[in-house]
Amino acid sequence: MTQRLNFAQLSPDLFKGLMTLSYEVKKGSIEQSILDLVDIRASQINGCAFCLDMHSKEATIHGERPLRLYHIAAWRESNLFSPRERAALAWTEAVTKMPEGGIPDELYERVRGQLSEKEVSDLTFQIMAINAWNRASVAFRAVPGSADKAYGLDKAGLE
Q1: Which among 17, 51, 64, 159 is least surrounded, fewest beta carbons within 10 Å?
Q2: Where would you find the membrane-spanning parts of this chain (predicted)?
Q3: Is 19 helix (H, G, I), strand (E, B) or coil?
Q4: Max CA distance (Å), the chain
Q5: Residues 68, 53: Cα–Cα separation, whole Å
Q6: 158 contacts 47 by C-beta, under 8 angstroms
Q7: Complete domains list, the chain, with CATH
Q8: In which element (H, E) is residue 43 found?
């Protein structure tokens, strides 16, 4: 697959703005392990190979266990995720897919049983950011692995 265009070079200020959002979210209230799960799950849903590749490598560098990475797509059936992680994954799916009629109160209340209001807000911004990255990367056919060296992802030892 060949990349259609380099959106980072063509729209540098907009790219920088999205990068700033992504960095700010990482300083928020949600732990890195959940941010990794969220990035991977949204990327799976959106069919974004570039982001799935990138965030799987990041999660590996952050110490995530390979078996948990394999189970993310089937998190509901897996016993490898905590209630807090399950809440984050459920919220990720709902915000990413945005069901007709909005997100049900029942899901929001279930998520609020695991996350504070601040955490739900921060998590939602993370989901918004990864969805934006997914959409740009899919639209412009970003090539998986093409930014590994620039982002230090070669340290993951995955090729």
Answers
A1: 159
A2: none
A3: helix
A4: 44
A5: 15
A6: no
A7: 10-154 (1.20.1290.10)
A8: helix 32-46
The two structure tokens encoding residue 48: 């974004």
- Length of the chain (residues): 159
* pTM (2 d.p.): 0.94
Tokens for 151?
């982002």
CA nearest neighbour of 30 among 127, 140, 103, 123: 123
- Residue at 6: amino acid letter: N
For residue 123, the Cα-to-chain-centroid distance in whole angstroms is: 10
Query: What 8-state DSSP symbol labels residue 10?
Result: H
pLDDT in tens, 36-92: 999 999 999 999 999 999 999 999 999 999 999 999 999 999 999 999 999 999 999
> Which SS3 state, helix, strand or coil, does residue 6 take?
coil
Place of tokens 């965030």: 55
pLDDT band of 156, cuts 50, 70, 90: confident
User: What stretch of H or E contains 48?
Assistant: none
Q: pLDDT digit string (tens) for 115-124?
A: 999 999 999 9
CA distances from 61 to 9, 50, 111, 120 (A): 27, 17, 28, 25
pLDDT bracket for residue 157 (50, 70, 90): confident
**Dihedral, 129, 134, 140, 141 alpha carbons, nearest 10:** 150
